Amino acid sequence: MADHFSGPRILFDPASDVADVFVFPSPDRPGRLVLVLDVFPAATPTALFSDALTYRFRVRPVSPASEGAAFVVGDAEYALDFTFAAPDRVLGVDGPVQTGLCTTPDGGQVVFQVGDETPVDTDGLRIFAGPRLDPFFIDLAGVLAADATQKLAFRPGAANTLEGMNVLSIVVEVDPETVFGPDSGPLLAVVGETVTSGGRPVRLERMGRPEIKNVVLASRKFDPVNSDLEIRDLYNEEDAFAVRPDYAGAYRARFDANLAFFDRLDGETVWPLDGQGGHPLTGLLLADFLVVDVSKPFSESSCFEIETALLAGREYTTCGGRAPNDDIVDTLYTLLVHGVGGARISDGVDHGTRPATHRFPYLVAPNPNPPDLMTVMSALPAAPEPEGEAA
Questions:
Q1: How does strand 125-133 pair with strand 120-122?
Q2: How many CB atoms lie within 10 A of CB 377?
Q3: What does the DSSP assignment read for 223-267?
Q4: Nearest Cα to 241, choosing from 80, 75, 79?
């Protein structure tokens, strides 16, 4: 699942669990950039944002590298920090009320109320925070079956594993020139994070591109170097713009091994390894951030288009980034298995429970009676055994 439950440590702290990051030009306010951070996957109706965390968007200017499929990241950084107070009782309101504070790159602060359907709109910012229906969709059973059988295992008409589930969402629409400055774009790299507040901050989770941790890095069995290492907790601690050299080799080994596995799923090789066993996509995906061109118009399905254009040696044509209705599972598997321009692979799930809209706050109202996560997970079919290993 996009970034839901992406490592053992995060299972014990759902409020810090980044489920998804979306970045796209506003469909109805040209020139504005929309940033969405979904946390607390499978949120219950009483879930609240943590008052011990900072929920952060980090934005940096980037440009395509002169050689290869890579980006040069600028030194300037524009951070939007969201913190939340402990819930309190308000006269005339049923249930606890939580307020939030957005701190802008120049130190400005904007106060808002969680769950208020009338967004705060000031100083180049429009803000909403509160429960929303989880927009992500995936056939998790098919993903697990492919890992077990080492063959594509998706089927038409599959069920969305996240059907009817909720998340807590932070949605902010930004005027980049006002909030980031006149020299901030138009090509931007974006990462979402959860960080401990106060004292010495500790990064707990971070997310750029979807399904890097839960699809590309999750399996250990193909990695000849780190087969006993659950690498995702380490990976979550990393600065997406400056991975520590101490662990870069471990990440590269996992990327190389697992990307080669995906390339084998259809029995053909489209991504030949180099002389040292390096996969052509490792460097690109290890620089794990979403890339968006805010000068381009909104596109519903442009995730990975800027990256694939680099790989193909052509100019990109869309805004890139990632919109909530984008079928990124199909896009990612197509890239990993069939390469740039290959026949599209479908996981059999084409949309979320209800599509996101094209108007702020984009994600739709939460399900008042969401399903129980453990019930959903326990109902998943057992992954089939690889051929030749059945009893």
A1: antiparallel
A2: 12
A3: -SS-TT--THHHHHHSBTTB--HHHHHHHHHHHHHHHHHHHTTTS
A4: 75
**Alpha-helical regions (H) of the chain:** 140-149, 176-179, 232-237, 245-263, 282-286, 305-312, 328-333, 373-378
For residues 97 and 118, is the Cβ–Cβ distance under 8 A?
no
Cis peptide before 186 (omega within 30 of 0): yes
pTM for the structure as a whole: 0.95
Say what percent of the chain tops pLDDT 90: 85
Q: Are 2 and 214 in contact (CB under 8 A)?
A: yes
Choose among 165, 131, 176, 128: nearest CA to 24: 176
Positive or negative, the Cα torsion across 298, 301, 304, 305?
A: negative
Q: Which residue has the higher pLDDT, 72 or 378?
A: 72
Instruction: State which H helix or E strand residue 71 sits in.
Output: strand 71-73
| 9-61 tens-digit pLDDT | 888 889 999 999 999 999 999 999 999 999 999 999 889 999 999 999 999 99
Integer Cα distance of 375 and 193 in angstroms? 29
* Residue in this structure with the two tokens 């969305």, named with its chain if needed: 160
Residue 68 has pLDDT above 80, yes or no: no
Q: Is 31 left (phi over 0), alpha (psi -120 to 50) or beta?
A: left
